[in-house]
Design goal:
Radius of gyration: 32 Å
Strand content: 5-15%
Structural class: alpha+beta
Number of helices: 14
Helix content: 55-70%
Number of domains: 2
Order of helices and strands: HHHHHHHHEHEHHEEHEEEHEHE
């Protein structure tokens, strides 16, 4: 089951902006998230390219034999080709490692590119009579590097430019081409680099645009549009089971806070539903501001009810947090669409489980925890609203009486 952190909160206008040179996200965290999301595709493409490159690079040793016969030079070129094949094997080994990072995959890709171009320069130097064919092969290699080996575009560009300069220098030194043919070959290689860069940059933009759409749709499916909190479906399908499983695994604590805006119907009746929406946004923003980013989860549970999941938090810590949020919301003013100021309060029910010990904790479910928090919320409502009520684990009802507390307005 997916972890809650797989749904990052993105801002379409700021975080998704691409730089002009490389078509990568300017925000490093978004680029990292994209690389993580695209890692499987990167891995698959790299494996296929390494297998293809290793096999065909060695297979073209027959062209060396056809050009040079069975000689020492042919053997040296064969060793150079085997060097690339060995590099491909090492790259495949790196790619097969569990949880290998994107940086490692890119390092393997860069190594293959460097070794491949180095071997090709040796072939060019030791087989000077086929310079026109070498130029055509060089163009194919450049296209492969830019478009078929998954690597960072700037690294592919630097490696390709260095190889292009080396090839032109070798061609000039060997003097097997006249000045006109050398100029034509150089221009062809420059054009291939430009074409490779443009197509690679366009590919970067296309895959990142696809990622943007996927992220936006993903966020729409798991977040409440009005408040930007997680929705109840995501709580039930992913969040609760993942947090409870993690709490049991690490024998930690998990607190649940269920909160409700007091007399919310009166706000809608007195100020209108747009004003009620504004109060909901204010309350949700306050909850999000008081909780830990990418640790705690805030869910719009229904209507004016919100639920908070607080990992590694006991009932005392959750109660202190709830009281702090209660006081803060009581002092917060929401401005309605017509300029009128709205003040409201909220009630909080707190419950927590401790998986460090005790029996019956395996029976704790979403229904039992939310039900216990809901019971505490109703206690707060019945006690006069604008207060916090707390209890211990719902699986140990005999201990609840000694842990319950009511924190009222003073």
């Amino acid at each position: 089951m997916a972890e809650p952190t797989e749904v990052p909160r993105f801002d379409a206008e700021t975080n998704f902006k691409l730089d002009r040179l490389w078509s990568e996200f300017e925000d490093a965290s978004v680029e990292q998230e994209f690389q993580h999301h695209h890692r499987i595709a990167t891995h698959t493409t790299l494996v296929r390219t390494l297998v293809f490159s290793g096999v065909f690079y060695v297979a073209f040793a027959f062209s060396d034999i056809a050009a040079l016969g069975y000689s020492r030079t042919t053997f040296v070129l064969f060793l150079a080709r085997c060097g690339l094949a060995l590099t491909c094997v090492v790259g495949l080994r790196v790619a097969s490692l569990l949880h290998v990072s994107v940086a490692s995959l890119r390092a393997a890709a860069s190594a293959v590119e460097i070794v491949g171009f180095t071997g090709f320069m040796m072939i060019t130097w030791l087989r000077p009579n086929g310079m026109a064919t070498h130029c055509m092969s060089m163009c194919i290699l450049l296209i492969v590097v830019y478009n078929f080996i998954p690597n960072k575009l700037i690294w592919a560009l630097l490696i390709s430019l260095a190889a292009t300069i080396a090839f032109i220098a070798i061609s000039a030194a060997l003097k097997t081409l006249d000045s006109s043919a050398l100029l034509t070959s150089s221009m062809l290689l420059v054009f291939t680099n430009v074409l490779g860069y443009v197509t690679a940059r366009r590919h970067n933009r296309l895959v990142r645009d696809e990622f943007c759409q996927h992220a936006l749709l993903r966020n729409l499916s798991v977040r409440d549009y009005l408040t930007d909190c997680f929705n109840r479906r995501y709580l039930t399908d992913v969040l609760f089971d993942a947090e409870l499983r993690r709490t049991r695994l690490y024998k930690s604590k998990l607190a649940v806070i269920l909160c409700d805006i007091d007399h919310f119907k009166q706000i809608n009746d007195s100020y209108g539903h747009p004003a009620g929406d504004a109060v909901l946004r204010t309350f949700a923003a306050l909850l999000l501001a008081h909780t830990r980013h990418e640790v705690d989860s805030v869910i719009r549970y229904g209507g004016e009810e919100f639920l908070l999941l607080l990992p590694q938090t006991d009932v005392a810590g959750a109660t202190v947090l709830a009281e702090r949020m209660r006081q803060s919301f009581e002092l917060t003013t929401t401005r309605a669409w017509d300029g009128r100021e709205i003040r409201s309060t909220a009630s909080f029910g707190v419950v927590a489980v401790d998986c460090a010990g005790g029996s019956g904790l395996d029976l704790v479910t979403e229904e039992s925890l939310v039900g216990a928090a809901d019971a505490q919320l109703y206690r707060a409502k019945n006690a006069g609203r604008n207060r916090v009520c707390a209890s211990g684990a719902p699986s140990a009802p005999d201990q609840d009486a000694g842990q319950e507390g009511v924190f009222a307005v003073t």
